[in-house]
Amino acid sequence: MKLKPQHPGYHVLLSNIYKDASRENEAAQVRAEMKDRGVFKFPGCSWIEICGEFHNFMRADKSHKKCTNIYSTLDGLTEQLMVEGYVPNLEFKASSVREYCLNLYEFQNLT
């Protein structure tokens, strides 16, 4: 399959498709090709403006000065989502617990 050589999104998507299809060798090959070509994925980023000040957050970031409060709030929101019946669709996602938790935090960023 021909991909745009310097666009990480296509490579990551293809690697994830291979991984979800239990084709680990092909997924690893795509990731190795990315590394060989110097193509890397930028981490997800969210930001919020509060009282004129912007706060940036990277995926699984713990560098913010109020990190403990932020993650505590996210844990509370996660619990509320589950009580309300939210069920994440993991059909096309990796099945690891870490990935599951990160997906929940990303979902909360969208709400």
Give a quick rundown of the structure.
The protein is mainly alpha-helical.
Describe what you observe in this structure.
One of its GO terms (biological process) is RNA modification. GO terms for molecular function: RNA binding. By secondary structure, the chain is mainly alpha-helical. The chain folds into two domains: 8-37; 46-110, no CATH class. Helices cover 52% and strands 11% of the residues. It is built from four helices and two strands, in the order H-H-E-E-H-H. The chain has a two-stranded antiparallel ribbon. Helix 1 packs antiparallel against helix 2. The radius of gyration is 17 Å and the shape is flat. It starts with 7 loop residues before the first helix and ends with a helix.
How do the strands and helices of this protein lay out in sequence?
Layout: H1 8-20, H2 24-37, E1 45-50, E2 53-58, H3 67-83, H4 97-110
Antiparallel strand pairs: 1-2
Organism: Papaver atlanticum
Protein name: Pentatricopeptide repeat-containing protein
Pfam families: E_motif
